[in-house]
Inverse folding.
């Protein structure tokens, strides 16, 4: 079965490259360093590299989430280079920013992950010489796992999650899926339900850690920066700031329409929209301008004046800061069938949090937070308007919802320590 998967991948490769080039029309970074995706690494990087621990983090969210793990690996294994791979340019930029000092010192090396094709993976593994390969959340690549297995390189999947919907998809190719998942030396799952579903796919060694993303660290410097930004966005406390974070195409209209309805009753309400993908920044700006909103862009440090209605968070790596400058959080990726995004970065600030009903990527967290009155799920735009309206009229209710969210984060620690215990068995 794997050979069919590989053949299909090779056939589709020209289309995949064309898609990258198409995306590069809006985001030029997609056409840069293309050779890395085929396993070719700059010779200077290879010369500096020794035996490594390979950590793959996909994009911005996973890179930020993996930061505590990466720091613990660097501390525990000074004899190894940490080779960090990402898939997206935004993830790459965030990785280079987070680990800039370690990259200069040669402790951390960074590149794109190569395509899951035998020759690409073979070149990459030969050059970075990993003693262990660590993947985040849902990164399951059959040829990569097979290549590592043949080289006796243990593979560990951390912060793993598997929804019921994804399980059903994998079970349509049960034999291939079980063969693939059995190649992991160990899997560290977010929840017991995730662990049970992973075992059903042939994963024999599975432990439960909780969600690494719950261990969000708010430094004093970040807290001070958020306070300053909040003064600007709230016009020194005269405005209530509502953030719609990680929105996808199709959601911005919903949020803006809801905002328009709310303004009639709450004229002091100000909206911050943070699109999930940077190639959508300009589209969201044009949408807001076309609808007649008074817009300010974070990237241009445009001054937020009294008549500013919508602020577009068109920068990378600042979402945690944006939450700290807000009063109410709406989580995107949940008003369309996308499965939602991480609620915990908003929860750490003690914000009242509202999400759409599509939360299958965070189903257990959403359920637990609902049970603790720390999250409100809404089905549609009208319910969203009603919910925000009720919260704005009930400051005590807002404070309780936010306090419960913050308490949920506090009681959900320990995932990093459990994950490191698992990793130490294989490095």
């Amino acid at each position: 079965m794997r050979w069919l998967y590989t053949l299909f991948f090779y056939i589709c490769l020209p289309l995949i490259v064309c898609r990258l080039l198409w995306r590069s029309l809006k985001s030029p970074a997609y056409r840069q360093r293309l050779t890395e995706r085929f396993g070719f690494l700059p010779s200077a990087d290879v010369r500096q590299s020794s035996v490594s621990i390979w950590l793959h983090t996909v994009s911005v969210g996973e890179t930020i989430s993996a930061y505590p793990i990466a720091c613990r690996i660097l501390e525990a294994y000074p004899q190894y280079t940490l080779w960090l791979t990402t898939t997206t340019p935004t993830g790459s930029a965030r990785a280079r920013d987070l680990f800039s000092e370690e990259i200069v010192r040669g402790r951390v090396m960074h590149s794109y992950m190569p395509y899951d094709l035998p020759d690409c993976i073979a070149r990459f593994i030969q050059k970075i010489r990993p003693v262990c390969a660590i993947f985040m959340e849902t990164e399951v690549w059959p040829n990569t796992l097979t290549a590592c297995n043949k080289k006796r390189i243990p593979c560990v999947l951390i912060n793993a999650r598997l929804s019921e919907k994804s399980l059903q998809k994998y079970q349509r190719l049960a034999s291939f899926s079980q063969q693939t998942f059995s190649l992991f030396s160990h899997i560290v799952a977010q929840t017991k339900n995730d662990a049970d579903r992973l075992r059903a796919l042939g994963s024999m060694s599975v432990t439960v850690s909780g969600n690494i993303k719950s261990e969000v660290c708010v430094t004093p410097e970040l807290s001070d920066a958020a306070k300053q930004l909040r003064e600007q966005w709230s016009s020194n406390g005269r405005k209530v700031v509502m953030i719609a974070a990680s929105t996808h195409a199709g959601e911005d209209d919903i949020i803006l329409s809801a905002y328009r309805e709310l303004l009639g009753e709450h004229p002091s309400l100000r909206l911050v929209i943070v699109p999930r993908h940077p190639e959508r920044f300009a589209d969201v700006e044009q949408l807001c301008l076309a609808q007649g909103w008074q817009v300010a862009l974070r990237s241009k440090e445009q001054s937020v004046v009294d008549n500013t209605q919508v602020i577009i968070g068109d920068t990378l790596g600042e979402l945690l800061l944006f939450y700290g400058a807000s009063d109410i959080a709406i989580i995107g990726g949940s008003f369309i069938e996308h499965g939602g995004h991480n609620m915990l970065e908003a929860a750490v600030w003690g914000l009242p949090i509202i999400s759409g009903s599509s939360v299958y990527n965070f189903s257990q967290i959403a359920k637990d937070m609902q049970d603790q009155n720390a999250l409100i799920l809404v089905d549609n735009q009208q319910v969203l308007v009603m919910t925000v309206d009720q919260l704005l009229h009930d400051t005590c209710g807002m404070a309780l919802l936010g306090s419960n969210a913050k308490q949920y984060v506090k009681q959900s620690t320990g995932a990093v320590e459990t994950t490191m215990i698992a990793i130490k068995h294989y490095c």
Summary: The first strand starts at residue 52 and ends at 56. The mean pLDDT is 91. The chain has 19 helices and 14 strands. The chain has two domains: 2-215+414-423, 220-410.
